[in-house]
Amino acid sequence: MIREGQIKDNNHLGTGEGDEMNMLIESLTNCTLLNIVSVTINNLGRTIPNSVGNLSTQLRDFGVAINRISGSIPLGIVNLVNLQRLQVGNNMFEGQIPNDIGKLQKLRTLHLSANQLSGPIPFFLGNMSFLSLAYLDDNTLEGTIPSSLGNCKNLLDLDLSRNNLSGIIPKELFNALALSISLLLSNNSLVGPIPSEVGKLKNLVKLDVSENRLSAEIPTELGSCSSLVDLNLRGNFFRGSIPLSFNSLRGFENLDLSNNKLLGTVPIFLENFSLKHLNLSFNDFEGELPTQGVFANISAISVLGNIRLCGGNSLLLTAQQSQMTILTGRLGSSELAGRALSSERCNP
After folding, report:
1. What are the CA-CA distances from residue 336 to residues 59, 259, 270, 318, 326 (Å)?
2. Least crowded by CB within 10 Å, which of 8, 59, 151, 254?
3. What is the pTM of this model?
């Protein structure tokens, strides 16, 4: 009988059939000193029984990610009061995230990605003061982003992308000042502006709010996010010009502002950045395009669909015209025709 130690992952356990998870949990209920159960990357199937809550109260790590487990997340899981890591991603869990999950006060990692979870994100997640990594992406979660997540003072990485979330981005979210790895909210139905409070996140490396319905101008306060390396605002309704405050973000490597309603000139200070990828496509920029830095690398930049841009690198002009021709042919749309750089437009 196992009384101490751990059950480890990737042991080719299970067939995906039969009541395998129930059998496993029942076999471990008398292991009073068990501190880790990690059976990730296996083939275990069926559901996790509610009796999971009878496992050792010393359990710190419960991991069943990348299996074939279905059903709902059992309510009994909240009895594991010393749990620090809960990893159930890449399965077939469905139903709602239990509201009482907020009782897991010591939880540091919550990995629920790539399931079929639905319903709202529980407000009580904000009770997890030690939570540092929260991955809820690739589900069908609905409703708004809970403002209570701003109470998670140790939160380093938050991924809510590819769900059905709606409403605004709550300004309270940016009270989670420890956010430093990434804040990923892409592919939802979020509306309204990016709150100016985003400027509080001085250590944030990656921000992705692409493919939503966000609008208003890009907040100048983003220029205070001095650690930003990757910013993706693609596929929204942002208007106005690129903020001059971006001049201070010299760590930029990837910047995607494509498919918005941005206008004005392309700032020349972008020449001085060490950008590996710059996408300004399908906006309404005008004037002469810079020629140095990333603008000299035709494989690193796209400015398709800005009919009032002119000049720029001659090789870029040729490449963009070729891409537009191909794109027009694929889409069969006359609306795209001619939406490429034109050197003639720079002439007096």
Report:
1. 59, 13, 27, 16, 10
2. 8
3. 0.91
